[in-house]
């Protein structure tokens, strides 16, 4: 799972006295100056005395070149005019993290295996007084899921049956924690309720078994 692999890499970075780790997915394409922009942003934030968990890039769809935006629109809190934003969570790919913060926040939760690993770590960091920062000058091209399909004019990202199992299982598991935001629990309840019917009926009937197994295993975790 991704959590175990990332933890192994982080331990190697600690062993080699590295200052930072940069997390990257194999299907992500950073702009040439992404890392330098992340480091520059981190240095600015340090000068302002901001307690930082991680700094991440603006993520754009690798096919459409359109930035991914949360469907739950919240008023953005900017630092340094509009270059840096305080966010509740970052996706792991492209994220720059100072090695020393793992001593306080802890490592990635290996129980999750793959889905929600990045968000859970960010929410845990927020609960410990740290901040997650999005740098609008650092750009990463990435594609969530396996493409999108439209339902009543709304784009729904398509996940494989393998991934959908972990999404349902981990959603139920994460709902137990107080530091996981209520807006995320509610929004994903609606999303997974829609997908419960949409995936088996429109994409493939084999999704139903994976969803039901994910729900069952999530309750038993």
Question: Would you mind describing this structure in some detail?
Answer:
Strands 2, 3, 4, 5 and 7 form a 5-stranded mixed beta sheet that branches. A two-stranded antiparallel ribbon has the order 1-6. The mean pLDDT is 89. The longest helix has 22 residues. The relative contact order is 0.16. Helix 5 packs parallel to helix 7. The protein is built from 7 helices and 9 strands. It has 221 residues and is an alpha+beta fold.
Key terms for this structure?
221 residues; alpha+beta; five-stranded mixed beta sheet
Brief overview, please?
With about 220 residues, the chain is of the alpha+beta class. Helix content is about 45%, strand content about 20%.
Which helices and strands occur, and which strands form pairs?
Layout: H1 2-15, E1 20-23, E2 29-30, H2 34-47, E3 52-61, E4 77-79, E5 84-87, E6 95-98, H3 102-105, H4 117-127, E7 131-142, E8 148-151, E9 154-157, H5 161-174, H6 182-203, H7 206-220
Parallel strand pairs: 3-7
Antiparallel strand pairs: 1-6, 2-7, 4-5, 5-7, 8-9
Helix pairs in contact: 5-7, 6-7
Terminal CA distance: 16 Å
Give the fraction of residues assigned to helices: 40-55%
How would the global form be characterised?
globular
Mean pLDDT: 89
The number of distinct β-strands equals: 9
Run of helices and strands: HEEHEEEEHHEEEHHH
| Biggest sheet features | 5 strands, mixed
Report the C-alpha radius of gyration, rounded: 18 Å
**Low-confidence sequence ranges:** none
Strand fraction band?
15-25%
Q: Structural class, judged by helices and strands?
A: alpha+beta
Counted by DSSP, the helix tally is 7
């Amino acid at each position: 799972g991704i959590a175990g692999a990332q933890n192994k890499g982080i331990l190697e970075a600690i062993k080699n006295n590295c200052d930072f780790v940069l997390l990257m997915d194999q299907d992500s394409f950073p702009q040439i100056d992404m890392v330098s922009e992340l480091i520059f942003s981190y240095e600015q934030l340090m000068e302002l005395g901001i307690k930082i968990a991680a700094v991440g890039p603006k993520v754009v769809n690798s096919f459409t070149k359109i930035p991914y935006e949360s469907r739950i629109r919240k008023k953005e809190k900017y630092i340094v005019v509009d270059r840096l934003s305080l966010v509740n969570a970052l996706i792991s790919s492209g994220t720059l993290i100072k090695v020393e913060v793992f001593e306080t926040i802890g490592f990635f939760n290996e129980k999750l295996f793959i889905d929600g690993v990045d968000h859970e770590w960010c929410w845990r960091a927020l609960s410990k007084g740290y901040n997650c920062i999005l740098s609008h000058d650092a750009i990463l091209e990435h594609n969530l899921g396996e493409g999108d399909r439209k339902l009543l004019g709304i784009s729904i990202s398509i996940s494989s049956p393998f991934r959908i199992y972990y999404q349902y299982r981990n959603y139920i598991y994460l709902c137990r924690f107080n530091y996981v935001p209520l807006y995320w629990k509610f929004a994903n309840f609606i999303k997974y309720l829609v997908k419960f019917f949409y995936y088996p009926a429109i994409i493939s009937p084999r999704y139903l078994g994976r969803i039901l197994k994910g729900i069952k295993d999530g309750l038993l975790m």
